[in-house]
Amino acid sequence: MSVFTHFAAGALAGSLIPNPFAAPFIGLGSHLLLDMIPHKDFEDYRIEIVLWVVAMIALFAGGAYSWAIVLAGLFAVLPDLENLLQKTGTIRRDQMIFPGHRKGFIRHGRETGVWSVVLQVVFTTVVIVWMIRRNG
Ligand SMILES: [Zn+2]
Fold first, then answer.
1. pLDDT, tens only, 12-45
2. pTM recorded for the entire structure
3. How far apart are the first and last CA of the chain?
4. Which of the residues in the chain have pLDDT under 70?
5. Rounded Cα–Cα distance for residues 105 and 125 (Å)
C-alpha cells in the first residue's frame, strides 16, 4: 500500500485505540494487514512521500493529533523505509525483513489496477477529514 495510506490507517487506529503504549504495535499490525490486500502503488515513490507529508500537515493543522495517533501513524509507515531503501538501490529485495515484504508465510497482496491508487487517495482524504472533524 502507499505510504500515505499506511499513515492514515495507522493514525485512524491510534485515534480509535488511544493507547500510546499499544500504538507502535497497532501501527505495525495495520501495515501488515494493508499490505496483504491486493493493491497498486505509485510508480514514482516521491509522489507517495509528498502525499504522506500533506496528510501529516493536514492532520496537525487540523488539530487532530495525540501521542497514540502520531506513534501509530509513524509506526504504520516505518516498514516502508526498507521499500524506499530497495527502490533507491541501497538494499536488495532479498535483504528486506518485514513480513509481507520478504518472501515467506505472509504474502504481499498482488498488484491491481490504477483504481487502487484512486481508492487509496479517497480513503486517506476521508480518514483525515473525519479525524479533523472529530478533533483526533
Ligand atoms: Zn509495506
1. 999 999 999 999 999 999 999 999 999 998 889 9
2. 0.94
3. 23
4. none
5. 32
* pLDDT attached to residue 104: 78
Q: Which residues crowd ion ligand 1, with CB under 5 Å?
A: 35, 80
Most distant pair of Cα atoms in the chain: their distance? 43
User: What does the domain layout of the chain look like in residue ranges?
Assistant: 3-134
Compute the distance from residue 31 Cα to the ligand 1 centre, in Å: 6
Strands of 8-134 (E only): list them.
Answer: none
The grid cell for 132 is 479533523
Q: Is 21 exposed, middle or buried (0-12, 13-18, 19+ CB in 10 A)?
A: exposed
What is the 135 CA–ligand 1 centroid distance (Å)? 28
